[in-house]
Inverse folding.
């Protein structure tokens, strides 16, 4: 792994330090929006707290000199099992956030998952990224637009479609609301800029109709949409947002190439259960930081593996975990 | 659902915001009395904390476009399962509190349960309320007065009698005591104003007699009183304050038309177990707020149902709940 | 129960208010010594927190008009099951503390347990107390002195000997140490004032001997001492400080007339388990307060019994308790 | 046990008071480094909190007048079961820290475990220490240096080799990092000063190689190293850092003379489980304090044994422990 860049922010020793630095470089409202979850942030807090329930049992005297954290995932050769989760509106953090993040992913052998709602087009991101990249898809109201996004992702060399299933309805967090945050006008979804707005305005609701069911959810994806999507692309489709084992089984039967257990980082249904499998959101403000953070995460992984006596990812077993006693 | 009124207080995004606004519009003592429970508020806190023990599991790809939260309860067609719990002394919050609350209930298809101890007569409330309304009854020392209340409730078109069973003895909360709150003279129980005070003063207690057992509890309702009540009215009688399964069974056998699991919102026996089934008390100061709060609660319900993949109340099953891990 | 005295301190609504008043009327060091436990006060805190693990299930519609909390205990007719635990050095709180407490016990039908280490003699306390009184005994180094204490307690009409078994070694709490508290010279153990100090000074410890085992514990009571004590008095002997079921069985077999589960109010071994059975220490500064506190405790008991649907102590069953959910 | 020295710091009543005194006598960075663990100090906090999960059940009326805490451990006669854990860089606390600690151990019959990384040579420490002493060994990159350390420890009369197995990789705590602490130049590892630095510089890492696995861990001890070590010394070898029962069994089979369950005081893998068996680190600044702290710990042990009714260490059984209820 190459030397660290020279112009890193001072005082960064662990990956989590970038999160603590964020309020210093972001406007308050931007930070509240990015750092918040939804509602009262119950799920956001639960996501982190869940890690406190487990402890790692060190094993002794094992030879870990040949150790590494390499793996192959969906046909992609990765240096480590950390993926960069899709993040909307990167411009909120920095005008170059998404291109810089893509370069950082390339430099560190990291798989990048580009969001439908990036401030930079998927083609521009692909030009900066390394070979390991996926495209996160939100189904569009107009299937012609969805098909166009699929064609573009295929052409730009994305390896897979990551279909988000659990966040058609995103309620802001109370802390973001309290900050008075509104999305800046310059934060457009670059991928969708060329598609005309729907010529059919949202229908007025009749008395007794629901702003949720007959409003926001009228275009939420269904099992039929998933089948149509899989028939419409040659790329494998991963399902993101899985929480219930029955849904997991049905998605597998339906042909999903991968399942991502996630609660949208606590930004979906507040009150949904914690997941241990979601990566911390990408919150750093500058490109050096992204590469550095991935490097730090990888070294923290290597250090933990080494101390736990695991030379490769395959050496990590449930036997290394024990319940942490409540304090 | 109609547009929101124009003059809502600012900064209200969730139903709970109304509770946080309350100290700004109420005198301190009034707020302490309304917001407090009893004793050290142990049960009051437990009521809320109990919700933290459960998480809702999102389900994916279900078609919820026809979703709603309508239900029929006790013959009443309701837009949602939130009822307005009986609240005594509405004048403490606002001179028009009870009439405005009744109009809000009508506007939002909500069932109103009017308290025996309102500052407005049950007839006045009925004139403002929609068709879905019940009358909460405290048994009076003089059965003639109780019978008169029943006749008046029947005449005023109430659908059911909600008999409160668990709050004959209400000890104030320590925080309300510390605030120096005393009930203002203008807060009279309008429904009872026409009944003469008992001509028999409370008997002096002999040595060894108890201010509780031989004092406050000497007119508390018994199973005999419940039988008499049911024979004395053509309205169905719901029992409010049920906590023990044996009592629930016996009340059902005795012919109660409904059971309301409740600990009087933490205002009865401090130290009794939490209930998940009690609605947050009505604490907002103005009428717009009541309708708005019900609207917000309904939309929060719709949003949660939609994210959980439930199109109707009947779709909600225990399978959607999982224990939240302690943090 | 008679009217409340006129000169009670203001702001007292619950028994626990007396505890919160104590720092206002006691010198800081005195309060730290009285309110503290031992060591880091772990057991002291656990004693109180243990109550939070239980909730009381209200029962409905029971006829409790004949309710009371009377009981017979060890041949004594008591108005309620609260006993006044033995407290040493009452003069720390007030010069008249022990006589006033005795009068309060008499006025409220309360059993008083007088400590060996009171600032007032057991004869003076007996003169103020009602018929329900016990004498708490610490075994003296010289058995002649112990025998004399027994004779005096028998003569003064105490009903039972309460032998403290778990507090021969009492380490002060760190908070009391930090306050700089030292026992004032005027706080003498009045009962022991007539006994000459041991003519044999404490033996110097050899190298390797322990200030605990060969020092403080060299006169701690043993099973032989208990047997000797029982043969030496016609009064029943209750054992105080029981924590382990095996000790409880052995004490019962040995003829103990009563067992008091206690950890010396958290003033013995810090780190011993919580008990639910110990009464809050007597901390109020004036006599009115003692009677008032007992009256408040009794009314709180009656209110809880009434709300729980229990007319007598015999009606209280385990079915009224349920585990409080952790919050 | 001899009288306490005259010049102890004021306000010291319990062993833990020395820890609270430490920030007053140490530079902030030194204290942060000494008091911190690793990472976010999760394991450091868990180590202490784990004690809160257990309570000690007092037993009554046992004769403990012959009580003591003596034991024989690895052929060493000890006055109590507290050993002084190996501590690196004693000069950080005081220039005489290690010699003074050795004298304190001698005065109190305490076993001293001298670290490889002391600021004073093992020979100088041996000259100040009593007969109960062990040498903590970190395997050196060059086996010739390890062999020399073994010869020196044998010659200096150490009783056993304590081989640390779990701390080849030590990441600093975030609090120490935040304090800006860097090891002062005068804090050299005196035992290693005579060994030439490795003439072979650390190899440059190829792309894809890990700073952890191919870097810091390339000389971490393996089972082969343990076998070699045992064949290379006539001293018994104790294994320090055991956490997993399988490792414990394998170490026993391999001939380890003792097993020390430890997580390096929370300074190794942050997130590893709590141990109850590690002694609080030696943090006091002056020699009087060390002896005094050991004396205090011993008396606290004696007091707990006495109150629990245990005359000797052999009397302590699992029956004396009970789970402390969560509060």
């Amino acid at each position: 792994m190459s030397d660290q860049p020279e112009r890193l922010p001072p005082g960064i020793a662990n990956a989590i330090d970038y999160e603590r630095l964020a309020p210093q470089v972001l406007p308050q409202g931007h930070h509240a929006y990015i750092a918040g979850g939804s509602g009262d942030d119950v799920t956001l807090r639960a996501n982190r707290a869940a890690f406190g329930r487990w402890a790692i049992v060190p094993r002794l005297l094992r030879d870990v000199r040949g150790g590494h954290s390499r793996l192959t995932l969906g046909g992609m050769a990765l240096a480590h099992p950390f993926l960069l989760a899709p993040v909307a509106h990167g411009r909120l953090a920095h005008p170059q956030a998404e291109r810089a993040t893509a370069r950082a992913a390339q430099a560190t052998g990291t798989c990048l998952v580009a969001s439908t709602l990036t401030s930079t087009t998927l083609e521009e991101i692909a030009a900066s990224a390394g070979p390991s990249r996926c495209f996160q898809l939100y189904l569009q109201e107009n299937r012609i637009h969805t098909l166009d996004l699929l064609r573009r992702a295929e052409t730009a060399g994305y390896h897979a479609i990551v279909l988000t299933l659990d966040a058609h309805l995103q309620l802001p967090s109370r802390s973001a609301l309290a900050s008075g945050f509104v999305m800046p006008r310059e934060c457009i979804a670059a991928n969708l800029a060329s598609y005309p707005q729907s010529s059919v305005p949202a229908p007025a609701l009749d008395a007794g109709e629901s702003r949720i069911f007959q409003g926001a959810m009228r275009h939420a994806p269904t099992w039929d949409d998933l089948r149509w999507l899989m028939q419409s692309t040659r790329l494998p489709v991963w399902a993101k947002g899985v929480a219930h084992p029955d849904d997991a089984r049905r998605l597998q039967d339906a042909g999903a190439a991968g399942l991502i257990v996630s609660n949208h980082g606590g930004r979906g249904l507040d009150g949904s259960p914690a997941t241990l499998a979601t990566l911390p959101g990408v919150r750093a403000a500058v490109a050096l930081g992204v590469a550095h953070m991935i490097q730090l995460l990888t070294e923290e992984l290597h250090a933990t593996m080494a101390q736990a006596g695991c030379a490769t990812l395959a050496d990590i077993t449930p036997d290394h975990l024990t319940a942490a006693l409540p304090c």
